[in-house]
Amino acid sequence: MQTGISRKRRAYILLMRALMGLSAAVTAALVLFLVVYVMAKGLPELSWTLLSTKPSYLTGSIGILPDILNTVYIILSTLVFVLPLGAGAAVYLTEYARNKKLVAVIEYAAETLSGIPSIIYGLVGMLFFCSFLDMQTSLLAGALTLVVMNLPTVLRTTQESLKTVPQSYREGAFGLGAGKWRVIRTVVLPGCVDGIVTGCILSVGRILGESAALLFTAGFAHAVHGFFEGLEHSGATLTVALYFYAKEQGQFGVAFAIAAILMALTLVIQLAAMLAGRWFKRRREQ
Amino acid sequence: MSDIITVKDLCLWYGGVQALKNININIPEHAVTALIGPSGCGKSTFLKTLDRMNDLVPGVKITGQVEYAGGDIFARGTDVNALRRDVGMVFQKPNPFPMSVYDNIAYGPRTHGVKGRARLDEIVERSLRDAAIWDEVKDRLRKNALGLSGGQQQRLCIARALAVEPRVLLMDEPTSALDPISTGKIEELAAQLKEKYTIIIVTHNMQQAVRISDYTAFFLLGELVEYGPTEEIFSRPTDKRTEDYITGRFG
Asked: Using CA atoms, how far apart are residues A276 and A126, in angstroms rounded to an integer?
């Protein structure tokens, strides 16, 4: 009886292991290269003047303060609309809706919506918000387009976490004579805050990275405005500004500086999502 | 002793399946009534009908009458929340809310509009004492209730149900997930609670029915086969099926 592994089989195992190791190494190297390359090119270009001024054609100087502000404005105004809308829809679909077929159709539609290329959202947003609703090219039109785009994400993450709230909690509360809304407000929603927060962080990441949908709807302007004034005006976010400086003006230094900022922010968002997840997990286990 | 719940010709369907068939039963006040029978016989379903928890299940159809304190609970315009305050429920698996011990107990009273720290403090202490768990949790009222042991959690759930001052307490196999010592405590508790409340308890355990109940109802395949004083049911059953079940020939 043969107990060991044959020579041929041993070679095969070694080969497969080497191939898989190679795949892992290539993946890691690519990520590392991208990060190092962008940071090496971008960080030297960063300066306080760049971050704190606006561009001027008179002096020929470039500053990205307006783009930073526009990004913040767009994130804030998108979240203000998308969170209540998405979470509210999720609560309705999971807790109230009786027609399970309709719910399934809506869930399927949301799933599909989240897979549509963002430039299509931009095109529709331009025709609907900018032209039809006469908002012109403005941050508000851009934000509303992003609301439509992020709605499925917030809806689905909230729904998923609503489903993780044990039915026994609901039964317990109903059994004490609590009404539907009180059960939702005091027992169900606190149990799914983590899902809403995760959806929120994911959305911030998506908004930060979005450019195609904003090219059409929010425009390219680089003026500094206050929040509400800014919403009425056209304005470029960091990603749009990156495109603008690299492609239209050939300012690759500025483009890489913005890229470095975006990359750092993405990292921060990933970290925040991870830490939030851990925090909620620990709180639940206490 | 007067009857607090009167059931007439109650039938219930889940989708197309009939789970309860022409149930007629009167539940006396201030007594422990045990519902026994094999799994799937409809005893839990029957229990959940009494506080209309079956409303939460989609596709339920109910005919017949259930009168609580003289009023039909299925009548149009019945305040279901008020009914559930009067007819409390303790579930098979302990289900404390993921909040502090104090907030668990105060949940019901707050739901029904009780405000004020002093008033709530008093209700919390009384309910926990009534459920024989005050001494074990009085120093950890602010701690999360999920940190308690299973047996403590179940007594906490009983306290939570008592906090809204119900008249009837429905218990759905409240000890099936617990160890023998916790089970003993809950059984003792049921015997004390009948002074103030009416208790209807579903149990798989026939010794438990004998130990704690005054009346026993035997369910089989959605029918109420036999109902009477526990002593008689277990010593002189009139129906052959009851005799077969309590002597362990099936189940």
From this structure: 35
